[in-house]
Amino acid sequence: MLAVCGMGNGHFDALSAMQREAVHSALRSVFGPVSVSAVTAVTGGATAASVFCIEAGGRRYLLRIEGPASPLRNPHQYVSMRIASEAGIAPKLHYVDETSRIAVTDFVEQQPLQAFPDGPAALARALGELLRRLQAVPVFPYFVDYPDIVGKLWAHVYRTGLFAPGVLGPATERLDHIRQAYVWDQAHSVSSHNGSIPGNILFDGKRLWLIDWESAYRNDPLVDVAIVLDNLARSPELESVLLQAWLGRVPDEAIRSRLKLTRALTRLYYAGVLFSASAAASPAAPDTDLAAPTVGEFQQAIRQGRLRRGAPETKHVLGKMFLASYFLEVATPGFDAAL
Question: How far apart are CA 314 and CA 306, in angstroms?
Answer without folding.
Answer: 9
